[in-house]
Write a structure and sequence with these properties.
This protein is mostly beta strands. It has three domains: 171 residues, Roll (Nuclear Transport Factor 2, Chain: A), CATH 3.10.450.350; 98 residues, Nuclear Transport Factor 2, Chain: A, CATH 3.10.450.350; 114 residues, Glucose Permease (Domain IIA). It is built from six helices and 26 strands. The strands form five sheets. It has an eight-stranded antiparallel β-sheet with strand order 1-2-3-9-10-11-12-13, sandwiched between helices. Strands 14, 17, 19, 20, 21, 23, 25 and 26 form an eight-stranded antiparallel β-sheet that branches. Strands 4-5-6-7-8 form a five-stranded antiparallel β-sheet, covered by helices on one side. Helix 3 runs antiparallel to helix 4. The longest helix has 20 residues. The protein is globular and about 75 Å long. The chain binds zinc ion. The site of zinc ion has 5 residues, from loops.
Length: 439
């Protein structure tokens, strides 16, 4: 191991798994410890080196940009260092190239521009990077051939990378993942997954070890940054207990409808999320109608109110079918979902609904269905949430949720074959052992 001058960065050659082609291990030290008895926090991030295959000739340069909100082709070209009237004319008139006129914010554009500002080629990836449907990452390529252009629209080559991070938690889960450079979307997903097992606000102990393996997708032959798509495995060692989850596509049809299981294949996912909002608190609890001590009248609150800002995303708490979506007196904009075992859930006072949600649509647990608002009889923005079993209201915060269906024998065999290597690798990620190497 080489000497590390400032204890901050160290590259270690890693044993490379076949399925997980990992090229390097980088360890980042974090701030010095205040408590001597705590193990030093260390982070390991493993990833393939993202070396772009795009190369420019000496007189040209290649650049990638994200499309900004309200951007025009002209303003985009300017940012790419191009001034090319011929190109603009072609993009405005060619039936394929015209796609460029409908720039979508957040998507990536890569172009090679020569010293005189002419566009040699430009790639606009307008399809979304999606783990289960990589072929949907479609891309428009406009290529110059002297004074002529040609345009093609086809699926972009997509690279899948597996990233690993191991960390010691000293304050909160999010502080640790943030320090480790784990994308926010992945950290939020990890919190959701672990939520089925442990109350992260109350039960997390200092010195807990967290290991995360997640997937990123990157448009090959582009300079744009990879996008985090899903958590593949997570392991938390906390207060002498081990909490773990690994993603498994139980249908095996590659449609991305996977679930999380414990490493032994037992079901982890609860049939319902306790909270249809991320990061919110209960502002008014459930009450089944009892005499109010002062007013002497019956007061019932047959649901739970969650405080949240207007526009906060509301998620389906379980897999189900949309039974009602629309307006109802009092409830304002409301959604009712029907689930298995005679259960239904209701989401009221919404500002609006997600996409083109209609009655009869299938929704998955965690799927965006609407946005917090204050429609109907509501004094301010909040989510009113009801949970019904056979038409009878129960308290969603205390009702026992069943687990999702266990794996069949056949699925178990596929599970072991499909997740074995990942499970073995995550156990080898050791923040403490690497920390010891620095001393
Ligand atoms: Zn309410």
């Amino acid at each position: 191991m080489p000497r590390i001058p400032d204890r901050r960065i160290n590259k270690v050659a890693a044993a490379v798994g076949t399925a997980l082609a990992l090229a390097a291990v980088t360890a980042f030290g974090v701030a010095p410890l205040r408590e001597a008895e705590l193990p030093p926090p260390e982070t390991i991030v493993e990833s393939l080196e993202l070396k772009p295959e795009v190369t420019a000739t000496p007189d040209t340069f290649v650049q990638s940009e994200r499309v900004r909100r309200g951007e025009t082709v002209a303003s985009l070209l300017e940012r790419l260092g191009a001034a090319d009237a011929q190109f603009l004319k072609f993009a405005a008139n060619d039936p394929v190239a015209r796609r460029l006129l409908q720039l979508q914010s957040g998507r990536s554009v890569t172009a090679e521009v020569d010293a005189s500002g002419r566009v040699l080629w430009l790639q606009y990836r307008h399809g979304k990077l999606n783990a289960s449907e990589p072929e949907k990452a479609t891309r428009l390529t406009i290529r110059r051939d002297d004074e002529r252009f040609e345009a093609v629209d086809e699926p972009a080559p997509v690279e899948r990378h597996v990233e690993m991070a191991a960390m010691v938690i000293n304050s909160s889960l999010f502080a640790a993942t943030d320090a480790a450079g784990v994308p926010e979307s992945i950290a939020a997903k990890v919190a959701d997954i672990l939520d089925a097992e442990i109350d992260l606000r109350r039960d997390l102990r200092r010195g807990a070890q967290l290991r995360i393996v997640y997937e990123t997708l990157r448009e090959a032959d582009s300079l744009s940054a990879p996008e985090a798509t899903r958590v593949l495995a997570v392991q938390l060692r906390n207060a002498g207990k081990r909490h773990e989850a690994v993603w498994f596509d139980r249908g095996g049809d590659g449609n991305g409808e996977g679930e999380y299981f414990r490493f032994d294949g037992s079901s982890l996912r609860k049939a319902f999320l306790r909270n249809p909002l991320e990061f919110s608190r209960v502002s008014s609890g459930f009450s089944n109608g009892r005499m109010h001590p002062l007013h002497g009248n019956m007061r019932a609150h047959k649901g739970v109110d969650f405080a949240a800002p207007a526009g906060a995303p509301v998620r389906a708490s379980g897999d189900g079918v949309v039974e009602f979506v629309g307006k109802q007196r009092g409830y304002g904009n409301v959604i009712v979902l029907r689930h298995r075992d005679g259960i239904s859930t209701l989401y009221a006072h919404l500002r609006g609904f997600a996409g083109t949600l209609v009655a009869g649509d299938k929704v998955q647990q965690g799927e965006l269905i609407g946005f917090v608002g204050s429609t109907g009889w509501a004094t301010g923005p909040h989510l009113h949430y009801e949970f019904m079993v056979d038409g009878k209201h129960v308290d969603p915060m205390t009702v026992a949720f069943g687990e999702s269906e266990p794996l069949s024998l056949l699925e178990r065999a596929r599970f072991r074959a499909g997740t074995g290597e990942l499970v073995a690798r995550i156990g080898q990620l050791d923040p403490l052992r690497l920390a010891a190497n620095f001393e």
